[in-house]
Amino acid sequence: MTVPSRLLVRDLAQVATPAERAAPLRGAALGAVEVVEDAYVLCAGETIESVGRMHDLPALDGEVVELDGRGLCAIPGLVDCHTHAAFGGDRVEEFSLRAAGAGYEELHAAGGGILATVRATRAAGEDGLRAAVERHRGWMLRHGTTTFEAKSGYGLDRETELASLRAIRVAGGVPTWLGAHAVPPEFDGDTDAYLDFALADVLPEAAMLAEAADVFLERGAFDAVQARRYLEACRDAGLELRLHGDQFTERGAIPLALDLGARSVDHLEATGPDGVRALAAGETVGVLLPASALFLGRPMPPARALVDAGAAVALATDFNPGSAFCESLPLCCSLAATQLTLSPAETLAACTVNAAHVLGRAGEIGRLAPGYRADLVLLDAPDWRYLAYHLGGDLVARVVLAGEPAELG
Length: 409
Ligand code: NIG
Ligand code: FE
Known about the structure:
By secondary structure, the chain is of the alpha/beta class.
């Protein structure tokens, strides 16, 4: 039997990890962080072997590679459970128009917005899409994201949807089929005809490539009846369910998510008190996307009310070219602390343990404890709470991916 190679990250100022093993974390457990000062993390192969104080480090036999952690804090590798990283082109022109007062929904209704990215993504071809997802993965990694989900949804034809899902897989992402993102122009606004096509012609193969399905339930996109039809078919094909809901208006996304046992309902900027109560009483996670609310100048989601009511929440970037051109989870932690009034500890759990739960990977990633995958972020900071405190800072000194120091480019 070969002995796994060992990596010792030593002399760290702090190791900080969500304290509780359960997932998803809620209430007081969401804010419980375990901090070890003057600490080490020992990795054996791809797994964490032990975490502790330097003065308790046992003598280690055999070959051990050492990484100097002086002046750094270790936190779990960050988990981005909601991105749209598979896209071609950009929307910098639209961004300039929005800065001058044009509305996001207005641009979409005029054939721009998501549909502009659909044109660019179809034109990119499979090689172009692979290169794009790979580039975006590199950006995320430099900000400490060691596991990312990414959605299709900018192809909306068979070939480009499947190419997007393959590109995400090849780049090591967790693929979600967002087949119901918008109605492409060739269907001339006939939403039901588009769904007939997507479910008959794309779902069978998408279900073999993706882990989950997602729908944009919103005015100008899909209504609750259409979303239910799409999600039920996806569930029957073996996919987990996610929803984009309550972004601009409340249209039944939370009740539908709860009724179908969806993993998550994401956005929630328009969620009112009834939605907060309903989500808190259920198993579905509310995914907060403050970079998207900021980028579009929208109200922030009622995160404090959700957490105080006992809802399980996660935090993600929503990285995409139109509503959140932002790949930084640390920036989202800062927004969550300053705009959503979550504590730094709650932000850490929301983009580690709870995000891992949304992706069906709790117990495998998201904590620094024996048996978890050795994904670590080393922050250039004397205190781990700089994660949220250092607004837009160049925080990530090193990343360890499955026990190997990563090249950050
Ligand atoms: O999550 N709201 C729907 N979809 C994306 C944005 C897509 C785009 O503008 O390209 C979101 O915000
Ligand atoms: Fe999104």
